Amino acid sequence: MLREYKTLINSISSQKKYCEGIWGGKSNNNYFLGIQLSVAKTPQKFSHAGSENLDKIMSFDLAEVANANCGQINMINVSSFCGPKGLIWGYDIAIAKKEKIDFTFKYKNTIIYDIEPLCNAFEKLLGSLDKPRFPFLPGSHVPCATKNIIAKGKCHLYAAEGIGIPAERGKSACLLMEDIGNIPLEIDDVSGYKKMILNKLVSSIFSIGYNQRVAYNEIFVGIKDIIIDNGEYGCAMAISPYFSIAEDAIPKDDNIFLLDIDSWENIVKNKFLYKNECL
User: Which ranges of the sequence are coiled-coil (predicted)?
Assistant: First the structure.
């Protein structure tokens, strides 16, 4: 708990209502990590014979704000490790309920969980585009472990992510593995194909753990997909920002390490930028 407390007090943003990149707070290389999978699409409007860039940017920007509002940030693409000085929102703090899922791939005593509760917890922190809570300060420079795919229809895009939680958090980093790609349109068993993708993702986490001599006792994994029709552009994105947290998001009179995400939400809801209702 001492590690977590030191990380918390050094990971608070300079802003009361806004999160920032990891350089926004006291830092000392301490940070939070948020988890998001998102998909979006937009009708073709701005492409011409010489360029598709504007429509691609439109679909990318829509994916940034499709769930947790990660819009208006200067996203800096970095690698995918959350070390001893990092706290995962929804896992270490404001804890989301874990939901086990069954997988073909088995390895010793590692438990596999659905990643969606972590994504939902991050959305509860930042809020949505129309109902902001503690969003990123517009223009913030935010390092993100991220991968995305942008394509013109017709196609079926996906973004998947897995997180390996090491047995010894004080000595090893959590591993983030992102995968993005296409689900072939001729596939009939889409559910089975997505499960195959997730099994390969879990297997890759174990392989990297073996290569790095790190044992993971928990893995969180999930996937989002979207069908892009003719005349549309779409984006599928896995994005995990490293950030400092808005000061008002930390309850003053409650031990946030003992709160679940719903209790945290109830305590701080009067400090949201948008206060009228919960998501």
Answer: none
Evaluated on CA atoms 191, 193, 199, 204, the torsion sign reads negative
Q: Give the per-residue pLDDT at 255.
A: 81
Q: Report the C-alpha gap between 174 and 57 in whole angstroms.
A: 31
For residue 112, how far is the Cα from the chain centroid? 17
Cβ–Cβ < 8 Å for 252, 260: no
CA 220 – CA 203 distance, rounded (Å): 12
CATH class as words, domain 2-248: alpha beta
Which tens digit of pLDDT belongs to each residue from 79-113? Answer: 899 999 999 999 999 999 999 987 666 667 899 99
What is the DSSP track for 158-209?
EEEEEEEEES-TTTSPEEEEEEEEE--TT-S-HHHHHHHHHHHHHHHHHHHH
pTM: 0.93
